[in-house]
Every structure is written in C-alpha cells, then in structure tokens.
Amino acid sequence: MHLPRRSALRAALRSLACGALAAAALTGCGGGDDEDPLAPYRTQTVGWAACEPTILGADTDKLREAWKRLGDRLQCAYLRAPMDWNAPDKGDVAVSLMRVASAQPQLRQGSLLTNPGGPGGDGLGNALSLYFAYAGSNPDTALGKLQLQLLDTYDFIGFSPRGMGDSTSVVCTGNAFMRPTGHTQDPLDPVNLDNALYNGRYVADACAKNPITPHIHTEATARDMDLIRTVLGDERLNYIGYSYGTWLGA
Asked: Same domain for 137 and 221?
C-alpha cells in the first residue's frame, strides 16, 4: 500500500475554512495565523493510476470485464486521512478509491460517491456495480435516459471505508487457537454454544488490542467521505447509499 508523501503535502495551500463544511464538519480549523492541521489532508492531490489486478479480491472477473469496456476511464488511488480526526498528529490511515470517469469529460458536472452499507460493506467495487447497472439502460425511457446521462456527466467513485477492504484495515488476530464450532448438526448444543461465545470474545479482545480500532466508526467514515468530496473539487456531496450507507450519507 502506497500513500502520498507527507513532505509534498505539507507545502500545500492553507485554504478551505470550516464554514465550507456542513453536518460532518471537520474539527481543527484555526484562526488568524495559526496553521490548520487538517489543511494538508484537504489540499492533497489524488494520484489516479491503473488499478491493481487483484484489488477487488474475488471479483477479479468483474474488474477484467470493466477494463475491456472502460480502458483508462477505470482508475484507482489512495487518499490520506487522519487516523483521529480530532488529533491529526496521531498519524494517518489510507482510504482506497476507485473511479469510473465520466464518458464525456467536456460535460462533467462532478463526482458521484457510493456506499453499499453494512456496516462493514466494502464499497470499492460499487463504482463498477453502478456502471454495469446503468450502462445497459434504455435511452427511450425517462429513467434510462437519466442513468445514461449520469454516466456521461459524473465520475462514479467507490471506496473502501476505513478499517476494511483495500483501505487501512483492522486486523484482529492472536496466537491462541479458536475453538471448533458446528453449524449443521446441533448448533444449540451447550458445548457448541460455549465454543462460539469463546470465539466471539477472543476476536473482540484481539480487536480491542489494535490501536486503530477506536478510530473505526460512523463519524470518522462520514468525515472521510467529506474529505473525498473536498479533494475531488466538489462543492457538495453527490451520493448514492444503500441500507446503512444511507445513514452515512445523512
């Protein structure tokens, strides 16, 4: 995983005041001559490049088909975000992005961000899912015409929320062995239930030991989304969310 160099970002402009943000307002905006600690994040440049062939894991066939159809319109990048939005000096996380660029750049109106929900759903490939869903639309219907217009005028953006997928992930492991559990014969057997509870506690304890775990939550992901909006140059967030993803959008 490669992140943009901090040294290049530190020299970025100190623009974008707090007033530009709404419900998911970013903290840390300074006044007067004080440096805004979040300015390097907001002014970073997104380095779009060809996606790694295995970036979608098991969905390599979907990615391969998308490459055939889209060519250079399909790109990936990593965004730097503060691990702790209230204390940026604690370090960074990487947020993985995927883009299907608009079919007619001269008509481009902005970016369309999407998330599948969960919580815990990896939305990196959602850009492709929306593309495949809309590309076959019927231009003779009102809905089909609108969906094709979206492909022409918006960049579709998918992302792995922090803590999962191709972004900085939460890994919950240890050296002890998990206990065997059965799911087909008698899942309510007292020994089976006890083993399942043991495994659940084991994973929870392992997660609690990971220093990034306290920084994986809805508020942080919403702020990451607003950061994506900012660095992509959109004045407002254009967004399609599903299930829990609608909460993130709200």
From this structure: yes
Q: If you average pLDDT over every residue of the chain, what do you get? A: 85
Tell whether 1 is covered by a domain: no
Which among 213, 236, 218, 240 has a CA at the least distance from the CA of 161? Answer: 218
CA 110, chain centre distance (Å): 17
Task: Tell me: do 16 and 106 sit in the same domain.
Answer: yes
Q: Which two tokens stand for residue 71?
A: 């060519």
pTM: 0.78
> Which structural domain, as residue segments, surrounds residue 146?
6-168+217-249
Residues of the chain with pLDDT under 50: 1-33
Pair 132, 148 in one domain: yes
| Closest residue by Cα to residue 173 from 214, 216, 208 | 208
Strand pairing class (110-115; 239-241): parallel
Angle of helix 60-70 relative to helix 126-135, nearest 10 degrees?
60
Burial of 118 (0-12, 13-18, 19+ CB in 10 A): middle
